[in-house]
Design goal:
Blueprint lengths: L1 H26 L4 H7 L57 H4 L21 H7 L4 E8 L4 E6 L2 E2 L4 E2 L2 E6 L2 E8 L12 E4 L7 H4 L4 E4 L2 H8 L4 E8 L11 E4 L9 H8 E9 L35
Parallel strand pairs: 1-8
Antiparallel strand pairs: 1-5, 2-3, 2-4, 2-6, 6-7, 7-11, 9-10, 9-11
């Protein structure tokens, strides 16, 4: 009888435990797979805001002030910076200097940086003298040579054969007098001293450029025909430089083309001579470089025929 009572009590306790377990399973949360299956397929729509707040700070708002007690808080990362909103600029708040343009003469007096006066590099190089080349007037012997300095010819004539160092890249107006076959004649040729190339630098450092005038050239110029001749250093095949100069003249038989161009094709150009019958010291006329309104007392104006005084 006692065993039967214990069996009944144990059976009731087991039933109670089974009931509590069933109740716990019924109220437990669902698993992740079941929850995911019950989620909606599309994300929820964001809330509609009828009047979104402006991101631009308003000028009417008071400037931001630091939070009370912020200096006592522990420093975590960089300190916050509180900047007041920029004020709204109106024409009434602008100063007179900002609202009105500067006077015309005031800009030059203000200490503002200005662009420097930059000149082209080629122009600066052209102004710098390249050096000098020695020119030797070889003949005819006894010929006197001078050149124009400013507006007059200098009075220290060279007597051929003689040499002088002329500036490279310049054109000189010469005067030839005392010629053996033309003792009373004067010729005024131009002499262009060419800027040397790197190839002829060594030659010009040891040799002079020979210049001479033949009787045929002087007679042709006296007739009113222009004589052009060029002195050059020929390009020697298989050598860096030749040792003697050569000359191309417009009087050579069968000459065609400009002698300076022909000489440049054959080598390095050193000097170019142009000879004619112009008279730069005509006593009955103003000089060639005189302005159009210039007249000589007692003579005709420029453009008119001056009388020949015997």
């Amino acid at each position: 009888m006692e065993l039967l009572k214990r069996f009944v009590v144990g059976l009731g306790a087991g039933a109670a435990i089974v009931g509590l377990a069933m109740f716990a399973l019924s109220v437990a949360p669902q698993s992740g797979a079941e929850s995911a299956a019950q989620l909606p397929l599309s994300p929820p729509s964001p809330p509609v805001v009828s009047n979104p707040p402006s991101l631009v700070p308003s000028a009417s708002l008071p400037p931001a002030t630091p939070m009370p007690g912020a200096d006592t808080l522990p420093a975590v990362g960089p300190s916050p910076v509180f900047l007041p909103p920029p004020p709204t600029l109106t024409p009434s708040t602008l100063s007179k200097t900002q609202a009105e343009p500067l006077p015309p003469g005031l800009a030059a007096t203000l200490p503002f940086p200005t662009m420097p006066d930059v000149k082209p590099a080629k122009a600066e190089i052209a102004k710098q003298p390249l050096g000098r080349s020695a020119v030797r007037f070889a003949g005819p012997a006894g010929m006197k040579v001078s050149w124009l300095v400013g507006e007059t010819f200098h009075d220290r004539d060279l007597t051929a054969p003689a040499a002088f160092n002329f500036v490279q890249g310049e054109v000189y107006r010469l005067r030839l007098t005392g010629l053996p076959k033309y003792p009373k004649a004067k010729f005024y040729p131009t002499m262009e001293v060419c800027a040397p190339s790197a190839r002829v630098q060594s030659f010009l450092g040891h040799n002079a450029i020979p210049i001479s005038f033949t009787d045929a050239e002087l007679a042709t110029a006296a007739e009113g025909r222009l004589v052009v001749k060029a002195v050059y250093l020929p390009s020697a095949p298989g050598a860096e430089s030749a040792t003697t100069t050569e000359e191309v003249s417009s009087l050579r038989p069968g000459a065609t083309g400009d002698p300076a161009s022909v000489a440049s094709d054959r080598g390095s150009l050193l000097a170019v001579i142009r000879l004619g019958n112009v008279d730069l010291e005509n006593p009955h006329s103003p000089p060639l470089h005189a302005p159009p309104s210039t007249q000589l007392p007692g003579h005709a104006a420029v453009g008119q025929i001056a009388p020949v005084i015997p």
